Amino acid sequence: MNVLFLGRGKVAKALHSQLCETAHQSRLVASRGHIPPWPDDVDLVVVCVRDDALETIARRLAERPMRAAVIHVAGARGPEVLAPLRGRCAGVGRAHPLASFASTRVHPGLHGVLWRVEGDRTAVIRARRLVRALGGVPRSWSGVTPSAYHAAAALLANGSAALAAAARQVLVDAGAPPREVDPALGALLRTVAENLARLGLPRALTGPVRRGDAPAVAAHLRALTRQSNEIKELYRASGLAQLSLARALGEAPPEALAEIARLLRPAVRVRSRRNPLKR
User: Fold this and answer.
1) Domain carrying residue 107
2) Same domain, 163 and 218
3) Taking Cα atoms as reference points, which of 125, 50, 119, 30 lies closest to residue 82?
4) Do 257 and 202 sit in the same domain of this protein?
5) pLDDT in tens, 234-263
6) 249 three-class SS
7) Residue 224, pLDDT above cutoff 50
8) Is 187 exposed, middle or buried (0-12, 13-18, 19+ CB in 10 A)?
9) Nearest-angstrom CA–CA distance, 50 and 173
10) Average of pLDDT values for 137-164?
11) 92-113: per-residue pLDDT in tens?
């Protein structure tokens, strides 16, 4: 195929760069200001812009009839945002990569990445060809609520970065060399991802909650006493979320998991019931 990526951001550059390594043709065109015309032999236009700019781009593209199909890569928006293009192109759709794009220069590997693909028949066919060329796995997942789907992706991709930042702070405060912390945590996260991909849940869970090691959890909480409330609450929330996985595994004694739950739940402050009129 002849593919044109519309945009100059992280996603557009990553997809364009990696498609250039295949037998397909790839062009990268800026989406801001005037969009220059492109040759008639373009088969697929991939719109890689911010969610709030999709309507504007769709209206601008609708001014020029084309033989290409047009898709976007936004996770929270469906194909209908490109509806103004119907009848002006070969079809519209959405192909969202379930991947994390953090830089315009350092691109994530896309092999094995799941893409949620949906839309008009021609757009879907061409989008699936694009996904497979990039080593991805196209899936429709029809019926999945877009906002819930996007929330799940944000919970893992963005939440992992926040957890890594908290872990970094704890390590640096404990005396670890700051320059060595990020690569070390990145390697740790990679092994977690490998466990998840190969073993699935709940077997990917490791650590003291899985073992039912209440003394270790208590020691962690003591070590975090001088950290910010945000870090302490992140640890507590993460530990509580691990309990259901540990119960499903069934390796830890129930009473040990109950003790961990008690340790992780913050103490409830009881308000005084003294009569406010009495001094």
Assistant:
1) 2-139
2) yes
3) 119
4) yes
5) 999 999 999 999 999 999 999 999 999 999
6) helix
7) yes
8) exposed
9) 37
10) 94
11) 999 999 999 999 999 999 999 9
